Amino acid sequence: METHVPVLIAGGGPVGLATAVELAHHGVRCLVVEPRESVSWLRPRAKTTSARSMELLRRWGLAETLRARAPLAVSWSDQAVFVSSLLGREITRIGGCFGLDLTGSGLAAEPGQQVPQPLVEEVLREAVGDALLTGRQVSGLREDADGVTVRITSANGEEQEVRAQYVVGCDGPRSVTRQAIGSRYEGREDGRPNFNIVFRAPGLAERMPHGPAVHYWVLNPAQPGLAGRLDLEETWWCIAQGVREADPVRLVRNLAGADIEVEILATDPWTARMLLADRYASERVFLAGDAAHQNPPYGGHGFNTGIGDAVNIGWKLAAVLHGWAPASLLATYEGERRPIAADTIEAAAANMTTLAPELADPALMGDEAAFEKVRPAVAEAVLRTKHSEFHSLDLVLGYTYAGSPIVAPDAGERLPHRWLSPGESLYDRLGPAFSLVGDQSAPGVAGVVAEARDLGVPLREVHLPGEPLTLVRPDQHVAWRGSGSLRMALGR
């Protein structure tokens, strides 16, 4: 194990691994410290990788790998179906969920992807390689003017110290790094219990009358919840809402509406939290992912917000470590990412105000006449209250860093996507660092190129004839349009 590294990452979940991949993308060595020796498939956690996260995976050359290994192809379904039970009657459905319908769209370089979090972690682990140190965890750290001394503890209690120039804390809700910098969560916990179950149900899919869907919402007042497939074999997940502890076989059969064959693989009781760290960073220690924010899962934003954190802090650390940006650039991380997390928490909490228990109606469980009498009203309530949960591209693709000191007043948004030729995205032409996009014969190009050379900033010129110049940051967000300075975009 190395005793000196440029960046040490506490926690090797998807956000810690993404931070390491981003650093490697810029040629920066790091060490990821993670207690788990292997990834467990029994608690799939997040299941939606957003269109924006998939664009970033494409940037790392990993999007096709993840899709090829995902148990559910993106073309399999983009539907959420609301039912009286899994084997019962359909009430209504919502299509185009989670950006899964964006294949070939001009809005994004990649559609979303339904894929269990463990597979995302495995793909990222492979990309990180020997920078991942498992079986150990960060148990403490001391920061000084020149770096951070990190204490690492093994499962048997052996301790070692590693010296790092910077630390990124991706160590989750009980973050040691958050405690070390004196940061604390602000927010609240939802009082309603939930019960996750992963199970095998041979033959269930063949018996269901509703067709493929990424979510099946069961609006049975006696047993509300939602379920979905983890693969196209026999493995499923479900969330029983309003349940703290119960017989999982009974819960699954209640959701199914019949005494189906069930093998329970794992259970996981939980409560939703709306929490935001009051500060994201010290001089040399930065928080990302669940160490910085937690939100309810409704809308599929969870770890995707953390992937955005990873890219933001990753490129900035690389710029500072390579010497082409001042250390003051790192101070913009909190100002850019914390508002995004706050917006995400608010959106997810709003989605959570109406769940299956609130939409359920006893008449849905009656005879056909009673069902048909109440179905239109329930369907209207579903479409009115749940549409934004499944259609949130304004948040997923539309978040902006407007107001940041390193973007121009009219900039900060993600560079609008376009296809330049079949299968070739504008994003594919961008460099790993800054890109100057537009007509390269324009008068301002020579000045920007000279400035980049003087500062030692890697700059790729992307020629789009007749188009105004746009300076694009490493994270694909716009620094300025028309004219501007690289120095401003680096906080110099």
From TrEMBL:
Cofactor requirements of the protein: FAD
Record domain FAD-binding: where: 5-347
SUPFAM superfamilies referenced in this protein's UniProt entry, alphabetically: FAD/NAD(P)-binding domain (SSF51905)
InterPro entries in alphabetical order: FAD-bd, FAD/NAD-bd_sf, RIFMO-like
GO molecular function, one term: monooxygenase activity
Alphabetized NCBIfam families for the sequence: PRK06126.1
Name of the protein in its database record: FAD-dependent monooxygenase
Lineage, highest ranks first: Bacteria, Bacillati, Actinomycetota, Actinomycetes, Streptosporangiales
